[in-house]
Amino acid sequence: MSFHRKPKTFVGHVNIKVENLERSLQYYQEIIGFTILERTSSTAKLTTDGKTSILSLEQPENVIPKQGRTTGLYHFALLLPEKRDLANNVVHFIENGIRFGSSDHLVSEALYLHDPDGNEIEIYIDRDPSEWQWDREEVAMTVDPLNFERLLKNVVTEKTWKGLPAATLMGHIHLHVSELRETEEFYVNGLGFDVVNRYGGQALFLSTGKYHHHIGVNTWNGVGAPKPSENSVGMESFTLILPSEEAVKETINNLHKIGVSVKEEDGRLLTYDPSGNRIELTV
User: Fold this and answer.
1) Per residue of the chain (283 residues), what is the pLDDT tens digit?
2) CATH of residue 173
3) Which of the residues 177, 232, 276, 278 could staple to 227 if both were Cys, CB 3.0 to 4.6 A apart?
4) Does 1 fall in a domain?
5) Three-state DSSP string of the chain
6) Which PROSITE patterns match (predicted)?
7) Is residue 90, in this structure, part of any structural domain at all?
């Protein structure tokens, strides 16, 4: 599948804020299965292949706990390459006494859990796109119980859990936003995504190249929800990978057309959605 490579636009990296970096590093290595690519006293870049970071952690100065009923991260989602990887994660979590939720979304099968700071993580496997059901431009998704009996038939019993496979990707991100009308304009007319599912009047799912979603947005924390404090646990930013420098220029121009600014900070090209979620644009 090629939903996370050129010429698609997709989420390549997420940067989250935590209260205690050492505690989080232990969790993300021993429970989730990352390894450390780079680290400082207050930051760490995590990897699955030893070359590319798809998740970073940072401990802000004067950090405060995660604030409820605000905009920001709902969850980030790690896409595994094989169904057996998801099955082995189930066994790993059970063996380590980790509480987790689960769901069958028709397009995917997913596990959900929270890190020590309450940041939500989805770990999932896609069904073959030939099984996805499309009604014109909208893909069918639901929240059904996961069939564990069927899934666990894929457990590889002769191998112990060895962490996240090297081919693990940042599959998508799901955000709390304060409203949907301007949010849709931003992601569609500004960033070039297509709406592929409308969940009532409370959520939108967006993608490029007919993926089931690279980005989800919802108002489940309330219409008009405020931004969290800058030093609050949660999301610092996420990175959109665009296919070319020309695509970056075109995106910047489209954002300017709808009145959204793009600025460079410390070598990063940044913009903000209408709810204040920070997005880095790169190739």
Assistant:
1) 689 999 999 999 999 999 999 999 999 999 999 999 999 999 999 999 999 999 999 999 999 999 999 999 999 999 999 999 999 999 999 999 999 999 999 999 999 999 999 999 999 999 999 999 999 999 999 999 999 999 998 887 666 789 999 999 999 999 999 999 999 999 999 999 999 999 989 999 999 999 999 999 999 999 999 999 999 999 999 999 999 999 999 999 999 999 999 999 999 999 999 999 999 999 9
2) 3.10.180.10
3) 276
4) no
5) CCCCCCCCCEEEEEEEECCCHHHHHHHHHHHHCCEEEEECCCEEEEECCCCCEEEEEECCCCCECCCCCCCEEEEEEEECCCHHHHHHHHHHHHHCCCCCEEEECCCEEEEEEECCCCCEEEEEEECCHHHCCEECCEECCCCECCCHHHHHHHCCCCCCCCCCCCCCEEEEEEEECCCCHHHHHHHHHHCCCEEEEEECCCEEEEECCCCCCCEEEECCCCCCCCCCCCCECEEEEEEEECCCHHHHHHHHHHHHHCCCCCEEECCEEEEECCCCCEEEEEC
6) VOC
7) yes
**Which residues constitute the domain of residue 75?**
10-282
Structural domain total, the chain: 1
